[in-house]
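re: ur msg from earlier - yeah i can do the heme C complex, just paste it... oh wait u already did. ok heres what im feeding in:
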Amino acid sequence: MKKVYGFMVAGILFFGSVVMAYAIHEIIPSETQVAMPGPNAGQLNEYIVRFDPYRAWELWPKKGKLYKGTEPHGSLLTTFVNNTAMHSIKKKKMMADGSIIVKENYTADKKFVALTVMYKIKGYNPNAGDWFWAKYDPDGKAVASGKVDACINCHSKKKDNDYIFTGEAMKK
Ligand code: HEC
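and the outut:
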């Protein structure tokens, strides 16, 4: 009898955990449930602020908050990557379609001055890695967006690394 009781408890616990796992999976918003933004600075901003808040994303691996940056981005940087980008980073692959990199730029005295974003959209700009570029002021107003020459020209130094300066080399 004791044994049967034990099995029943184990069964209930197992069933409970399956239900819980399913419920959690339903609650956590994943990038697949919200439509990805188009090549549009306003849509992109709404997505990274409201639908899939970038501050809840992981930081670029091995880069803490407020690491040392270079011109033109600012003295201190904090870089967040969405799940899609993180997956590519871990596999050391070119960034997959839907990857978003959001970088907060700060002055030396930790004043937040701008947000710079790279968002990969398949077929958007095949001549330059299909990146949509955007720069926002601290209020979220876009000051540059799209196929921004200044961004592309400088980041082209890293053309063979999917236009990315940070982190290890990526392969096709
Ligand atoms: C003069 C060169 C230069 C220009 C112009 C430039 N960047 Fe960068 N960018 C860098 C460097 C260098 C890094 C690596 C971080 C650092 O050292 O500041 C970087 C990093 C980044 C990153 C993090 C991913 C990565 O490549 O490491 C993003 C996102 C980014 N830049 C967006 C932009 C956007 C958007 C623009 C245009 C508005 C822009 N950048 C213009 C040089 C540049």
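cool cool. Residues 69-70, 72-73, 77, 79, 101, 103, 116-118, 133-135, 144, 148, 150-151, 154-155, 164-166 surround heme C (CB under 6 Å). ping me if u need the other ligands too
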